[in-house]
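Reading is simple: the token line describes the chain's fold. The lines below illustrate.

. . .
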Amino acid sequence: EFRIYFLMMIKTLDRLNGEGLEILSEKARDCKSVEAIRCISSGSGAKTCRNHSGVKVILLFVLLICFGSCKKKYQTIPPCVAGNGGLIQVVLFANHGSTPMYNYLSHPDTAFVKYGTLSFTQLNKSNCDTFYVSDFSMRDHIHCTNLKCGNYYFVRTAYDSVTNVTYYGGIGLTVDPSITELDHTMIVN
């Protein structure tokens, strides 16, 4: 393939240099050598032969660099950096065993959020990046709104009015940029 490409380049260069140009070296035609000899007819009818292989090699090198440096324009997707200010909503449900847990305004359920990680120990209000509090009675979920795509660790609390115990559960989630809402049920113990 390179030989064919090189021979086409030599012929193109010949056409660019005028009608009096001839390639005399068989080695150049076979692409075994980059040497090409050009003979130019002078006005007096005598022929003067010059070696122009260096010029052709430099021109070929410049053309290869030009073609090699062309980049396709791809649509770049910005990297996912977790945080506030996005359009994604994560809805966290809570189950204790198989029983759904419902919010009570006297003991509001809370979701604590840590940005940029899928694991975190002892996440609470003092060391989280943000938190969301359920503000409706008897709702079984919390809406974590305005998030960007990225990695998050969520800790969800849920109050059990029968046993008067607050349960906790945590999960790491990766939020994909192609979604606008992610619903997830967490187990709280």
